[in-house]
Design a protein that fits this description.
This protein is α/β, with parallel strands linked by helices. The chain has one domain: NAD(P)-binding Rossmann-like Domain (Rossmann fold, 3-Layer(aba) Sandwich), CATH 3.40.50.720. The protein is about 50% helix and about 15% strand. Strands 3-2-1-4-5-6-7 form a 7-stranded parallel beta sheet, sandwiched between helices. Helix 2 links the parallel strand 2 and strand 3. Helix 4 packs parallel to helix 6. It is globular. The mean pLDDT is about 95. Bound molecules: acetoacetyl-coenzyme A.
């Protein structure tokens, strides 16, 4: 398969960095967005130092206008987007009876509305070119729910509803749409969970450990080659066996 242009949202984060690296290693031209320029430039330098040239474009995926501008920025820098990985996400964990409107809205905007904001500006081009890959990074907690994550689980479950609808609408256009649902991965997001709570969660993972960002990047890359053209609307769990729903 030839080189494609890939846009990975939230690429400077834990899982996002591994996805950017892997797609670049596969020969694709990769871009990500940022909100903090200084941090993003540092990240880009570190990526260059180990041989990965990743384009960075400003833009908050939670804003429809900013998301569209960011897509146009990537198109100007690298060309039309063939592969979109909706990876950007945040947590605002708290039990629902204490949840504030902003804790609800921030998570829904960044984790779910972003999927509309980012996919809308790329889908027509993919349909016109008859090739595309749209991959949502959801979560095990969108599949099973999680104490303290009514906002996050709602957004993550919503992402897969989006996947299976978009997959149907675009199957005839050479576009596959899939979800990867990571379990608990050793990123800053998971390390922010209080240690005592986290240890109890790790004890429930059959493999007995947290996952690595590279293990998620591998699952994302699986959906990209032409050999994967028959796989659309899937939800691929990568969670160390913690949840085996089907
Ligand atoms: N099931 C049942 N009861 C639970 C529970 C659970 N899973 N977790 C906590 N409780 C109980 C506690 O035992 C405690 O009960 P007692 O008061 O009777 O002792 C009560 O709920 C309150 O618990 P906390 O003291 O923890 O309450 P808190 O308000 O300080 O914190 C919380 C609540 C923020 C939800 C905290 O428990 C927490 O951070 N949990 C982890 C949430 C989580 O897994 N987040 C994932 C982040 S990583 C991510 O999101 C990536 C991904 O996709 C996987």
């Amino acid at each position: 398969m030839g080189a494609r242009v890939a846009l990975v949202t939230g690429g400077t984060g834990g899982i996002g960095t591994a996805i950017c690296r892997r797609l670049a290693d596969l020969g694709h031209r990769v871009a990500t967005n940022y909100r903090n320029e200084e941090k993003a430039r540092d990240w880009q330098q570190r990526m260059r130092a180990d041989g990965h040239d990743i384009a960075i474009v400003p833009g908050d995926v939670a804003s429809p206008e900013a998301a569209e501008a960011l897509v146009r920025g990537v198109e100007a820098a690298l060309g039309p987007v063939d592969i979109l990985v909706n990876n950007a996400g945040i947590t605002r964990d708290t039990t629902f009876h204490k949840m504030t409107p902003s804790q609800w809205t921030e998570v829904i905007n960044t984790n779910l509305n972003s999927v509309y904001n980012m996919t809308r500006p790329v889908i027509e081009g993919m349909r016109a070119r008859k090739w595309g890959r749209v991959i949502q990074i959801s979560s095990i907690n969108g599949q099973k729910g999680q104490y303290g994550q009514a906002n996050y689980a709602a957004a993550k479950a919503g992402m897969h509803g989006f996947t299976i609808s978009l997959a149907q609408e675009n199957a005839r256009f050479g576009i596959t749409v899939n979800t990867v649902s990571p379990g608990y991965i050793g990123t800053d997001m998971v390390m922010a969970v209080p240690e005592e709570v986290r240890n109890k969660i790790v004890a429930q993972i059959p493999t007995g450990r947290l996952g690595t960002p590279e293990e998620i990047a591998y699952a994302v890359a699986f959906f990209i080659p032409d050999e994967a053209s028959w796989i659309t609307g899937a939800n691929l769990s990568a969670n160390g066996g913690q949840y085996m729903g089907w």
